[in-house]
Design brief:
Four copies of one chain form a homotetramer. By secondary structure, the first copy, chain A, is an alpha/beta fold. Chain A contains eight helices and seven strands; from the N terminus they run βαβαβαβαβαβαααβ. Chain A has a seven-stranded parallel β-sheet, sandwiched between helices. Chains in contact: A-B, A-C, A-D, B-C, B-D, C-D.
Chain lengths: ~250, ~250, ~250, ~250
């Protein structure tokens, strides 16, 4: 039975590519996303076509019980979850405070912070019993600095980062490796950046950035680092790292 | 008509003392706390006995509309809120993940992050119209590092800090000064530290720490810095500062 | 006998104004700067004309023994140094690595880091004996992030900031208060910014920035915060704070 | 001709193991250390016995010209330096300010900060011409917080970290990848930790820490991450990461 890598937030960007990378490394990838059954099945089919093993589920992370039930079902039906990739974003674009509803602010927290708490609550007891486990958390520069219009997103990501630290403080000694991956740049991801910009602007940007060869962050390449971190020897774990394209400025140099 | 200083979280520690300091400086202090009507009235009476002006309200910040309605009533009945002191804590002591309920985690966010978002949403439009305003936010080292057992608190404070930054990024140019005050130590506050430790341990600690002269942080002294920051010239604002007793170690030196 | 406030780096900007503020508060201000005897005597005369007490010395901080001898002479002739303001900058403008000589890099360290180590070595034993003392260190955003062309400056300021922390870790308990003041913006200072930009550009900038009323940081206003921090009660010291004009962006929002 | 990986500070700990890892990956490893010709030759012989390619040089990094001449000689005799591993430590143990001589403080800067500046000045022009290069910098938690007695070390490492950022800001776009590796824990390294503790205490510690299997950081395992970072695709570079044993506390949790 293959170990399971569970990806929460598996679109065609980071999530899907990380799932594919773990499948290539011998894991059964479980891909979860909120919508687009067709896109989901394409991801699964792509992995299987490459000789890997995967399943896909639509999952609305906001819905009470959704994450918890999926975890329980996987553990029962597919086997131990060895790696969780928590990849739900909470970026809603820049909005003035007056244009940020209470609901939007709470939604940011639901996806950005609470969802991570929920999945950690669900998987950590099992990982502790097994003496091992990995939780990789995609994050953003909004976790370390708040820009204008980012009220909901930055508050959510700031909470996410601190939660990664408290999880490590409790669980590292028990064999669970939590890593906070600070993505500092635009990812070549049609399902997120592409939708935010619109198809035309997205293609234009890809053109300017050198055919997406390097200017945008390539999710298949990012996935290599996710995979590496998940397989570090426990005497030398990385708990926080950044990822940024060579051609981009660090967030503090803009 | 005196300018109003609104304190959310006005116990006998930081909140009450900051209110007293602003009252001494010519403000009308509006003190809000969740419970203990008697303690609240003692604070108000103490300020008035010293020649100051104050009012007190019980306010449950979790309750929808509570903060918003209080702000509206103050602006109508008492005058412009020039200073907000957001002093609600979210510390619930160290709890393992398994002992941190979803409800406790959400409560941390309600008090630690969302409440600040709500009061900012309520007062910022008015402050922008007036071209000035101050929001002083009491915070904790949990905003910058997550310790074991602090899942709820650290996630809440990490969000609080990022929110302070996004508020500044939008509103500093419009004359609103948001300051994040990172309290790194134990405060000589019977209503919070005292209740967490219990009366006996609290008095014992005060004894060990030199009669509370210096070892614990004295809230009346902390209030001087809150007052100073609120009155900095707008060409030289402080947005983040720490406060710590001389006898204590910085959080990174423990 | 008045307590002494020793300012290392006392031009017409932060240093001179902080000296003036402390003189107004009852200190004897000792102003030291590398050159411009005339400007120095004007600062002294201005303080005396306002009823304060001051002396001025030309001091080349790079020269071995210069700082140490000045400290010894002050302690013997003028009395105990209660406050040190270490205000030497090390900004040389943006220079590519290829244009940054070893000498320039070392000079940055001499002024930015080593000079602070030297003055701390000279005054801390005396302050420890007296059980009190304050060291206020002007610093820059280069202490927390490195921008292009800032090789010498950022390395120097990064060292300065860590040194402030190690000094606090050793001396806070002995009554010495070290504060790292992170100046995040352009200061309305003819001797530094004025010289770097040239007289004409400097006046133009002051014009654009609203007659230097608010856009540039006004050093006389900054001095109020230096003075406040130096007089905080020891139960509530600030060890790090930023200063920025309301109209400016935080370094991470650019 | 094999690409060259130049290790400055190649003892039996991180430096030697990183050299060995790159040699295993097809590089010619050039190992430089200040003393112990015998230990150096053992490292070289070990690499060659494993089928790799290496050379060793004694190099006193403090000596003017030492680094620069070695770089020039390598480029002429061995080929292009593709990877630099700057692994010189500057830890001298905890010393009170009064026990930290000017010379010790300057030595910290020479090894911790200036040496990196010098090697960057030597290799960056060549790497820019070739459009690629990697500089991996071993660093310590002293780069981000100053503990008591760490005056020299923390000032040196604080400068080192900021210098990594300014190097990235100038050179990332030109294809040079600079990574700051924050080592947060004790490394199982006889040449550094072993010498600092003494042979007996070192063996005792290894015993307590589980036969050095996991409690101490294993340099051969750390080397895997150095190697990974050096080979990240340029669309997804890591510029800062920490390494810590699973059994250890993060520096902020102590």
């Amino acid at each position: 039975m293959k170990p399971v890598c569970l990806v929460i937030g598996a679109g065609a960007g980071i999530g899907g590519n990380v799932g594919r990378r773990f499948a290539a490394g011998g894991y059964h990838a479980v891909l979860c996303r909120r919508s687009d059954e067709e896109g989901l099945q394409q991801l699964v089919a792509g992995i299987e076509a490459a000789g890997g093993s995967a399943s896909g589920y639509l999952l609305n992370a906001i819905e009470p019980g959704s994450i918890e039930e999926r975890v329980a079902a996987i553990e029962e039906e597919l086997g131990p979850i060895e790696v969780v990739v928590y990849n739900l974003g909470a970026q809603i674009g820049d909005r003035a405070l007056a244009d940020t509803s209470y609901k939007a602010f709470e939604m940011g927290w639901q996806l950005g912070t609470f969802g991570l708490f929920r999945i950690a609550s669900a998987v950590c007891p099992k990982m502790v019993q097994r003496g091992k486990g990995v939780i990789l958390v995609t994050s953003a520069t909004a976790a370390v600095r708040g820009n204008a219009g980012q009220h909901s997103h930055a508050a959510a990501m700031g909470g996410r980062r601190m939660l990664c630290q408290t999880l490590n403080a409790e669980f590292a000694r028990k064999g669970i490796h939590v890593a906070h991956v600070l993505v500092d740049g635009m990812v070549d991801a049609p399902d997120t950046l592409g939708k935010m910009l619109g198809a035309e602007s997205f293609q234009q940007l890809r053109g300017q950035r050198g055919g997406a060869q390097d200017g945008l962050m390539l999710p298949a390449q990012m996935a290599e680092t996710y995979y590496h971190v998940a397989h570090q020897h426990r005497s030398a774990w990385t708990h926080e790292l950044d990822l940024r394209a060579y051609s981009d400025l660090a967030w503090w140099n803009h």
